[in-house]
Amino acid sequence: MYLPPLQAKDDAHVAVSGNVTIHPSAVIAPGVLLQAAPEGHIVIGAGACIGMGVVLHAYAGTIEIQEGASLGAGVLMVGSGTIGTNACVGSSSTILNASIQSHELVPSGTILGDRSRQIAVEPEPKPSAPPAPVATPTPEVQTTVEADPWGNTPPAPEPETQPVADPSPETTVINPDIDPKAKSTAYGQSYVNDLLSTLLPHRNQQFSPPSS
Q1: How far is the C-alpha of 87 from the C-alpha of 85, rounded, in Å?
Q2: 8 Å CB contact between 81 and 66
Q3: Cα separation of 88 and 102, whole Å?
């Protein structure tokens, strides 16, 4: 816990307000504020030591600093309560409607008593998750048909057809090395023979095979 340094006082001014009783042997440092509400009372016993900047605010009860008790610099005591004999309260401590037993030692920066007036600390906001990606719709392709100015209904487009290749004529070839008497035959050969007979009329006499 961070404790801010206390600034020294240039004068021995002590502020006292309300019903406050101080023993002549008590030691009070500069900058002390002793304030008692109309229904409160402050009593400082013999030999008590009140450090610089101590604030005692009594209301609805009595704040009593008994004999030989010591309050460090910057102590705040509010409400009602008792600091027992020869007790020691460290600097910058806060006591709210609480009491300290005799010969008890309270470390510096301690908070005792009612904590109902705590400051609520809001939690840090958590980072939000990134938004999910939005799918982009695919544009639809629309086919536009121009209207006929004469009011005729345009014909529906015919489906595209792919040309079918003509099947090539099947040919059967017999290897003449195996059977020399075998003739090679082929489908569609008559058209070729007619064409050759027209162009070469003597072809049959020269190339006709001998009769067996």
Answers
A1: 5
A2: no
A3: 9
Give phi and psi for 206, each to the nearest 5: -80, -35
Q: How many Cβ atoms are within 10 Å of 97's Cβ, its own excluded?
A: 17
- Compute the distance between CA of residue 116 and CA of residue 139 in angstroms, rounded to an integer: 64
Claim: this prediction has a pTM higher than 0.85: no
- Cβ contact 29:7 at 8 Å: no
Q: Which two tokens stand for residue 10?
A: 């240039």
- Report which of 87, 25, 23, 106 is spatially closest to residue 34, judged by C-alpha positions: 23
pLDDT, tens digit (0-9, with 9 covering 90-100), for 30-62: 999 999 999 899 999 999 999 999 999 999 899
CA distance 32 to 15: 6
In terms of Cα–Cα distance, which of 57, 103, 99, 62 is closest to 76? Answer: 57
Q: Are 115 and 97 in contact (CB under 8 A)?
A: no
- Report which of 92, 99, 95, 91 is spatially closest to residue 114, judged by C-alpha positions: 95
**Structure confidence by residue, pLDDT tens digits, 129-163:** 777 777 776 766 565 555 555 666 666 666 666 66
